[in-house]
Amino acid sequence: MNTTTTSEQSTTAAIPYPPDLYRFDTTAKGISGGFTAVTETDIEYFHQYGYLVINDAFSDREVSDALAGMIHLMDGKCPDFRAIQFEPSLAKAKDEMEDDERRDAIRKIFNYVNHEPRLNAMATHSGLLDVLERIMEDTPQLFQDMALVKPPRYGSEKPWHQDCAYFNLPEGTTVVGVWVALDEATAENGCMHVIPGSHDEGPMIHFKRRDWQICDTDVPVGRDTMVPLKPGGCLFWHGLTHHGSPVNRSEQRRRALQLHYKPASCGEVTTQERMAVYGSEGKDVDC
Q: What per-residue confidence (pLDDT) applies to 8?
C-alpha cells in the first residue's frame, strides 16, 4: 500500500444523537429521464421546496468511472493528492490496514477535481451545469468538491445543518449543493434527509456540538423527508435547506460525490460577517 497519502483526521465526535432526530416514513419523489427531462415545473419545484431529485442523472458507465477515480485517489495512486479524512474511530489504525479495509475507514476525500479527470468529468457534466444555470439564472461556478464515503458500520452522522453556514458568501446567494450516489443510498446506510421548504425560513444559528450544526430542537423533524437514491441518482438542494444524514450501521457502502456551486457573479463576505448570521462558533468550520 502506498502510505505517502496523508490524511486530515475528522473532528466529528461519535456522540449519540436523539433516536427520533431522523424520520423514515416520508420519501422524496424524483423525476426520471436524466438531466434533459428537467422541466420549468421542476425548476419551480426546487425554488418552492428547496430540493430536486433526478433518479437517473448519470449513466452506469459514468458511475463506474467515478468509483474507479475515487479508489485511485484513496489508494494513494496520485502522489500529489493528500486530501483524505478518516472516520474518527478508525483513524489511528489506518496505517496497519490493507487496501480494502483502509478504503472503508475513510470518511471523505476532497479537492479532487484537479487530480482525477474521471471525477472532474462528473463535476463539469454539461447536463448538470445546464440544470444549475436554470436554477441560478447565472453561470454556475464550482467552489467545493468532496466525495463522501460513510463506510459500513462506522459511517458517522452529519447532523442537520445549512450549507451557507459554512461559506463566506452574501446572504441571498443561491448556493446549490449536488449529491450524486455512486452506491445505492438507503435508509439503512445513511441516505440524505431534507426538510422541504426550510430554505425559505432563513438562516439558522449553528453550534459546535457533534459538528457545526443546527440545534437538534430547532429542526422541524416532522417534515423530514429522506432521499434514497440508486447509483447515478442526483439530489440538488438549496444552501439554506436543512439537511443531514444519520449513521451507517449497515454492511453496505454509501459512497457519493458532493459538489457545491455558486453564481459566477456573486461576491464574498468576511468570516466575521458570516458568523454574525450563523453563529459565533463557526470561525474554522468545513462542510
A: 45
